Amino acid sequence: MIVNHANYMILSANANTPFWEHWEAQPYPQWAALTGIAHVPVAPGFSVEPHYHDCDEFWLLIEGDGEAWMDDRAYLYTSNTAVYNPMGVIHRAQSFTAGLSSGLFTRLERQKRPGHLRTWEVGPPGPTVPGFVVPGASNTGPFPDRGPRCPLGELRVVSLRAGESAADGMAPRNEYWHIIEGQVHLSIDGLALDLIESDIAIVRGGMSRQIHAVGRARMILARE
After folding, report:
1. How would you class 68 by CB atoms within 10 Å of its CB: exposed for 0-12, middle for 13-18, buried for 19 or more?
2. Which of 4, 134, 177, 202 could share a disulfide with 82, CB 3.0–4.6 Å?
3. Positive or negative, the Cα torsion across 43, 215, 177, 164?
4. pLDDT by residue for the chain (224 residues), tens digit each?
5. SS (H, E, C) 102-156
6. pTM of the full structure
7. Are 213 and 162 in contact (CB under 8 A)?
């Protein structure tokens, strides 16, 4: 089910497109900065080769430990670590343990080439701004310094107990709620429904919404 409203979009019952299709299939609203969200299981020793993108990319490490590089600078990551890879930044990653991560993407720019761009195949990138990493232990709210380009001001894991509320009232900015585990109840603009694993709710800033857990639940919150 896809509910497409002027001020929100719901992708429910696994209606979200697979990870590898996000680069070209852009079902998200034009007012939203992101065009794709997907969580990906990671095996121990999994690695990603050096590459860059014609868009901005975020990674949220939901579970696991590893190391990420941006322009040859290394960063250790643990659960709830947020990584911002701006367009043109060469980056790679290596997992030390099994885990789960979520990738988030913006619209393609410049030559609008989808997927991983490798310097030995397509040449070097044109830089934009440096990336940054917010360690999991300190990733509890808005980014301390998002810089001049970063389209998100917040990206983190939200864990709820049964009946606990994640949001109640007006969304301060455009929001993306991605259910990782469990079930939550969403009420927005007269619509009430339950969301399950892999479902996504995109809410325009200024809309009133209520989100609470039906049982234990985990979600990704991305906020512009």
Report:
1. buried
2. 134
3. negative
4. 788 899 999 988 655 544 444 444 557 899 999 998 888 888 999 999 999 999 999 999 999 999 999 988 999 999 999 999 999 999 999 999 999 999 999 999 999 999 999 999 999 999 899 999 999 999 999 999 999 999 999 999 999 999 999 999 999 999 999 999 999 999 999 999 999 998 999 999 999 999 999 999 999 999 99
5. EEEEECCCCCCCCCCECHHHHCCCCCCCCCEEECHHHCCCCCCCCCCCCCCCEEE
6. 0.92
7. yes
> How far apart are the C-alpha atoms of 57 and 144, rounded to whole Å?
18
Q: Give all domains of the chain, ordered by start, each with its CATH number.
A: 33-150 (2.60.120.10)
Query: Could you tell me the two tokens for 39?
Result: 């969580």
